[in-house]
Amino acid sequence: MNALTDATLAPAPAKAEPTIAFVSLGCPKALTDSELILTQLRAEGYGTSKSYSGADLVVVNTCGFIDDAVKESLDAIGEALAENGKVIVTGCLGAKPGKAGGDNLIQEIHPKVLAVTGPHATQEVMDAVHRHVPKPHDPFVDLVPPQGIKLTPRHYAYLKISEGCNHRCTFCIIPSMRGDLVSRPIGDVLGEAQRLFEAGVKELLVVSQDTSAYGVDVQYRTGFWDGKPVKTRMLDLCERLGDLAATYGAWVRLHYVYPYPHVDNVIDLMASGRILPYLDIPFQHAHPAVLKRMKRPGTGERTLERLQMWREKCPELVVRSTFIAGFPGETEAEFDTLLDFVREAQIDRAGCFAYSPVEGATANEIEGQLPQEVREERRARFMAVAEEVSAAKLQRRVGATMQILVDKAPMLGRKGGVGRSYADAPEIDGIVRLLPPEKLSKQLKVGEFTRARIVATEGHDLVALPI
Ligand code: SF4
């Protein structure tokens, strides 16, 4: 959860200004929605409050992906109602219909909430805020930094390139909540990237539901950036982001990419160092029959060959992925195929969920739902294999010198610090524990790069000596 206590927010305003408390739950896509709303609030002169009781109103940005997330969101709304009483709800859960035939689940469970919107609804949220806490007369526009307000640390930021999804994976209800793919205009996306780099961002994390599908909905329409035509297409976007990042000495990292043939060209950009040789591909499974039951996109039989070909072009490539164990109907033989895939594909970082039914998902009707113990047991077996692969790959880094982005460095790193290499995305992968530098003159600074020699591994992490 990202509560409003984040240090990136501007100082508390004078008492006369209305203040809003904000709770942000869910994935990076939801986080960018939160940033847009907070930016707008600040632009209009609202202050932000660190506590529910000290605020004039609370906005809760919810997640509705799995049942645990739904519960967390409903609990947060209940808490805000109890402590403050004036609550507006936005986000994925806001789009979920009620069980008793009502328009939405939230108003059925918490009838006292003042307004409910779905995701990606900054204007609707602002309209609801205006109705219940009128706009201040003299907006403090100057308090808004040009890049907006960010909930992530100053040196990395998520860049959302599209909303929604054209796929219909049977375990997922995101398309029913967020709708079909809508790509943001390429000029807007590149403009936002430039503002973020100018504000000091050193790592840009590109997110969407399907980054490789960028522009499909607008037939790769030609947009404009910097006075020149540019197509709304993944490759063109990556080229321009790579050029921008080079100007500012920053990294670009891609998330949620599917192994479509056109991604081959993006690997060339990685091999030439324009964007990080890192791909986050949510494979979910490897057996063709399970993938078919899941209705997964980009699941040609040649996935393994494609990965091998990518690694030949770009040997540094790191692949992170997520998988589901115990999907309905999964046989032992199908599960074994998944284990073989993780070994053969040499997945660098893997996460695995035991299959968990999501209300409203069509996978709930698939025959052969497996007992919870079987799903959990397969997840544990999967993780044992995945960790073996991952540990062996990490071990091979010992002795190498890597570029590390510093995330924490108390006392300018005199006692060491924490950073990440190109192989580690923030919050989901490992870290690099930085030892105190041997040279007394060497300092570590948050948001800056340092070179470091890898000296050991520690579970999912590396230990390195800054040089
Ligand atoms: S690709 Fe599948 S899992 Fe991902 S958002 Fe679209 S429907 Fe859901």
Word description of this protein:
With 467 residues, this protein is α/β, with parallel strands linked by helices. It contains twelve helices and 21 strands. The strands form six sheets. Strands 1, 2, 3, 4, 5 and 6 form a six-stranded mixed β-sheet that branches. The protein has a five-stranded mixed β-barrel with strand order 17-18-19-21-20. The longest helix is centred in the C-terminal third of the chain and has 24 residues. Strand 15, helix 11 and strand 16 form a beta-alpha-beta unit. The site of iron/sulfur cluster (SF4) has 10 residues, from helix 5. Iron/sulfur cluster binds next to helix 5.
Task: Count all strands and give the number.
Answer: 21
N- and C-termini, Cα separation: 35 Å
The stretches of 5 or more residues where confidence is low (pLDDT under 50) are 1-15, 138-144
By DSSP (H or I, 4+ residues per run), the number of helices equals 12
Largest sheet: 6 strands, mixed
Residue-averaged pLDDT, rounded? 88
Which secondary-structure class do the elements indicate? alpha/beta
Q: Choose one word for the global shape.
A: globular
Q: Report the portion of residues in β strands.
A: 15-25%
Give the C-alpha Rg. 23 Å
Helix content: 25-40%
Each distinct ligand: iron/sulfur cluster
